[in-house]
Design goal:
Layout (H helix, E strand, L loop, with lengths): L2 H32 L2 H10 L9 H27 L6 H8 L1
């Protein structure tokens, strides 16, 4: 394989991984939050002090953003529980140079 082709293949794999990550994030976080009105209202009720007791309609976008962040944290924690992350220090060291 020619050097340029190897770089192109690596870039295509990175793009593929990025698109996959985006797709999963969209499904697990954004769409879940958009279709879970009861979850958003429950989150708002539980964290109402964070919004200085403003009416829900005034802070809905902020609540949605915070709720999405919570869903993302829960998802990442579930992945960390299910899968062990290991870093090849030797390989990492060779990349940093």
């Amino acid at each position: 394989m020619k050097p340029g082709q190897e770089n192109e293949k690596m870039l295509m794999n990175e793009l593929k991984d990025a698109l996959l990550f985006y797709s999963i994030t969209q499904q697990k976080i954004w769409e879940a939050a958009n279709h879970a009105e009861s979850g958003i209202l429950s989150f708002y009720t539980d964290h109402q002090r964070s919004y200085q007791d403003r009416p829900f309609e005034e802070v809905r976008d902020e609540v949605m953003e915070d709720y999405q962040h919570e869903l993302e944290c829960e998802w990442i924690n579930s992945l960390r529980t299910r899968y062990q992350v290991s870093i090849n220090q030797h390989l990492l060291g060779s990349l940093v140079r």
